[in-house]
Amino acid sequence: MFKKKVIALLLGAALVASMITGCGGAAGTSSDSGKSTGGKKVGVSMPTKDLQRWNQDGDNMKKEFEAAGYEVDLQYASNDVQTQLSQVENMISSGCNVLVIAAIEGSSLGEALDMAKEKGVPVIAYDRLLMDSDAVSYYATFDNYMVGTVQGTYVKDTLDLDNAEGPFNIEFTAGDPGDNNAGFFFNGAYDVLKPYIESGKLNVVSGQKTFEEVATPAWATETAQSRAENILSSNYADGKNVDVWLCSNDSTALGVETALANNYNGTYPIITGQDCDIENTKNMIAGKQSMSVFKDTRTLASQVVKMVGQILNNETVDVNDTTTYNNNKITVPSYLCEPVFADANNYKEILIDSGYYTEDDLK
Fold first, then answer.
1. Bridge partners for 246 per DSSP
2. pTM confidence score
């Protein structure tokens, strides 16, 4: 009952495809398209060096771009919007032929994007959609709706909702309302579980079911913890069990896990997450978190390197979604990589055997 369909469908197909061939089978380490570079220069703008994943993204892309023969201008903006705006403008002025931008705030780079459009510099939005501009050429990310469906399907299969009598109690903690991805994560999970909520097999005891009600500004662990403590004291102090706490990512999951440790004595719930952060992976091993969706940023970086090569060689650029991601100005052609999940049963295969972490990292 613990794994079943999720592992059979997602790990059997998506894992093999993504780990072996890169991003949905589209890219390995670097594509043939990147070989004839002609001294081209690529600007890569990352939001901050304070988070592990952005350092990995930037380093992976720089390494692959340079291996393909490109000059790379990699800049980190210290989570300051004006700094990122200035850095991107300087990349354009310095002669970058393509820009890859992971925005701090998706709607805050309008001036720089207008400058890029005026000078004919293509722009790839990286992982976070650039909003309110028609100067965005492509978007490369993971399938954010699928991230949620992986979480929801994990819950469905672990509880065996199609066969178990129930009812089960569930709570939701979603992400930053200012992050365009957060709604996709929540909706993907909720859409899987909605039939069981409507039938009464899943009971949201707090009554908080909408994204607006369950969102966590800035994905802050402390905010998620405070809200979880309020839910527990208001709804579970009488001894009710919470069977599932669906968290959209690992930072919010940490907050919920701390709240449970401090304020809950019932049967420990299923807890979902996303990103396979080191502390959360340790918690999975220790039984404090059930799963985390893994988005291997190495594959996303590889896909972007391939797309840049295709742009600069005037080739057809790989996209697999032309309808989903509208930024309020245009629908941006997108390439969506497939996420998989890790849990206590498969984390060694997913995270250690692939070289993402070492055994020492998780001690």
1. 172
2. 0.80
- Cα 172 to Cα 329: distance, rounded to the nearest angstrom: 31
Task: Give the dihedral of Cα atoms 238, 244, 249, 254; nearest 10 deg.
Answer: 40
Q: Is 76 helix (H, G, I), strand (E, B) or coil?
A: strand
Separate counts of helices (H) and strands (E) for the chain: 13, 12
Give Cβ neighbours of residue 307 (< 8 Å, ≥ 6 apart).
124, 138, 140, 317, 318, 335
Q: From CA 166, how far away is CA 160, in angstroms rounded? A: 10
Torsion sign (Cα): 148, 151, 154, 159? negative
Kindly list the strands in the beta sheet with 270-271, ordered across the sheet, starting from the edge strand earlier in the chain. 202-203, 168-173, 244-247, 270-271
Can you give the pLDDT at residue 38?
A: 60
Picking from 64, 131, 54, the residue whose alpha carbon sits closest to that of residue 305 is 64
- How confident is the model over 227-274, as pLDDT tens digits? 999 999 999 999 999 999 999 999 999 999 999 999 999 999 999 999
